[in-house]
Amino acid sequence: MARFEERTAQRWIRVTEEQLDTGLADQFLRTERAGGITLFVGTTRRFTDGRETVRLTYDAYVPMAGAELQRLADTAADRWPVEKLVLHHRTGEVPVAEASVIVGVACAHRDAAFASARWLIDTLKARVPIWKRETFADGATAWVEGQLPPPDRPGD
Amino acid sequence: MAESTSTTEPATLTVRVLLFSVLREKVGARELEVTLDSSATGNDLLDHLAEAHPAVAEHRGALRLAINQTYAPHETELSDGDEVALITPVSGG
After folding, report:
1. CA distance linking residue B52 with residue A60, whole number of Å
2. Do A132 and B91 touch (CB under 8 A)?
3. Would you call A144 an interface residue with chain B, using a CB distance cutoff of 8 Å?
4. In CATH, what class is B12-87?
5. How many whole angstroms separate alpha carbon A128 and alpha carbon B89?
């Protein structure tokens, strides 16, 4: 599958089949201008409503997913005083307990770091063109019921 | 020869349609090429696809279009060469 990567001094955005590395994300976010870093890591959960999942498999419209993540980063930077930002999403197979998504924000103060990270993960889930399929312990598979993206730009 | 040289080009446009997740599985293709009338909109494309592929008809009620990698209303007029993705409800994260 294709991959997307943009890395500048302020932000690091990736869509990749590789395992995500929270240590590298944390390192990237460190800056003397920040007083707080929020690092959200989304992982594959084993049990949902009593049913056992063995892995998730993510499909993505990779170039657009990258472009949407860039638009989310732009909007977050307009709304909050973001010093540094990380948005990483994994594609392909993600076994139980491994990370599928990392959202990281470094801000001068914690309120903005929490608020922007919360907005970023919620908005990512609502509009970035990525889909997950569950594989259950009994071998059955199912695409996860998702959210229809709003037709406008993020934050409108 | 009295034949006219002004052979009018058929007024059509061709778009590349990308399918993902559940639609890719049900239609059995990642990509389709569709030729439509040159005044066609996203709705016209969906009419055409729904007729050819029952899965598109089934999912049409909850479908967003992305034209050249940006979400766009179904009423948007298409252009020749557009990349149009059919986006079923997303579930990333």
Report:
1. 24
2. yes
3. yes
4. alpha beta
5. 10
CB B67 within 8 A of CB B82: yes
- Residue of A148, A152, A153 to mutate, testing the B interface (most B Cβ within 10 Å of its Cβ): A148
Per-residue pLDDT of B41-86, as tens digits, reads 999 999 999 999 999 999 999 999 999 999 999 999 999 999 999 9
Relative to beta strand B12-18, strand B83-87 is: parallel
Kindly report the CATH number assigned to the domain that includes residue A44.
3.90.1170.40
ipTM of the complex: 0.93
Here the tokens at position B55 are: 């899965």
Which residue range is the domain that position A13 belongs to?
4-143
CB contact under 8 A, B85 and A61: yes
Domain positions in chain B: 12-87
CB A82 within 8 A of CB A103: no
Q: Which residues of B touch A100 (CB under 8 A)?
A: 92-93
Asked if residue A151 belongs to a domain, the reply is no
B12 vs A: CB within 8 A: no
Closest CA to A26 of A75, A88, A76: A88
In angstroms, the first-to-last Cα distance of chain A is 31
A49 assigned to some structural domain: yes
In tens, the pLDDT along B1-44 reads 444 455 666 699 999 999 999 999 999 999 999 999 999 999 99
Number of domains forming the structure of chain A: 1
The tens digit of pLDDT for each residue in A47-58 reads: 999 999 999 999
Helix ranges (DSSP H) in A6-155:
22-29, 62-79, 110-127
